[in-house]
Amino acid sequence: MNFAHSTPGTDNHPVLVTRVSETQWHAVEDDLTVGRGDASRRPDGRLFISIDAWHSAVFDRIADAMLKDLPTPLYTVVAEADHDSRSAWERAGFAAARREWDYLVPTDSQITGLGSVRPPSGVTIMPAGEAEEGPLRALDRIIRDEVEATVGWRTMPAEVLPRPAGTTVLDPSKYAVARHVNEYVGLVRVAPLTRQPRIGLIAVRADRHRRGIARALLADALGSLHHSGTATAWAEVNESNAAATALFESIGAQRTASTLELVRR
C-alpha cells in the first residue's frame, strides 16, 4: 500500500504524505520525515488515530490524507490542557465526545480512611495473583457483558490495551478478586507501572452492587501498595461515572488532569 498526497509544505517545499502501510502514514519534506500518522482499531471495534508532527501545517496535511483514506467514525485522545493539539484536531473536524478525569490516589489508610474497611458478610478478598484463572476470566466476561448492555464499554477508560481477539484478561496476577462463597463477584486490576501503579479497573457484578464490595477491593489494593512502599497510585474515571467518582473522591484522591476523547463522524 503506497498512496501519496502531495501539498505545499512549511518553507515552500512540498510535503509528500504517503500511506506506507495499512495503519501508518509518513510526511516527507525535502527528503526528511517531518510527521507520522497511525491508526489502530480498539477491541470494541472503534478506529483511533494519532498524529505526530512538529508543525501545524504538517499536522493538517497528514490529517487530511488520513481522513481521505479511512472510514468514519474516527476517534482520538488528547490531554484537555493541550490546547494546541485539541485545536488541531478540531480543525480536522473532530469534536469532544467524553472526558476522563485523572486521579492521584493516596495509598496510606490514614489518608484514605480505608484502614477499618472490611468486606461485607460472606465476602473474602483474594489478593492479587491468588485467583483461579478460569473463574476470573468468567467474571471479567460477565462484567464486560453487563457494561456493554448498559452504558457501553466505550465509556470505560479510553486507554485500552490491545489484546488478542476474545482475550480480556492478559495477566491474571494483576487482579485481586472478591469471592462470595464459591463465586467471584468483583475484581480490581492494578498495573505495576514503573513510575506509578495504575488502578486500571475496579468492577463488581451488577447483582452485588451497593454492598461495599468495591470499597473493600480498593482498600485491599491500596493497602498492598502502601505496604510495598508505594505512596500513590493513579486512576482514570469517566466523568459520567458518578459512583466511581464518589468512591475515589471519598478517599482523598485528587484530580490532576483530564483527557478528552474526540470523534469525527
Question: Which SSEs are present, and which pair or pack?
Answer:
Blueprint lengths: L3 E5 L5 E6 L4 E6 L2 E10 L5 E7 L2 H14 L4 E6 L3 H9 L3 E12 L2 H4 L10 E4 L6 H17 L25 E6 L2 E9 L6 E7 L8 H15 L4 E7 L3 H9 L3 E11 L1
Parallel strand pairs: 5-6, 11-12
Antiparallel strand pairs: 1-2, 2-3, 3-4, 4-5, 6-13, 7-12, 7-13, 8-9, 9-10, 10-11
Labels describing this entry:
265 residues, 13 strands
- The average pLDDT is 88
Determine the structural class based on helices, strands and strand pairing.
alpha+beta
Contiguous runs where pLDDT drops below 50 for at least 5 residues: 158-162
Q: How far apart lie the N and C ends?
A: 25 Å
What's the number of extended β-strand segments? 13
Q: What does the largest sheet look like?
A: 13 strands, mixed
Helix content: 25-40%
Beta content:
35-45%
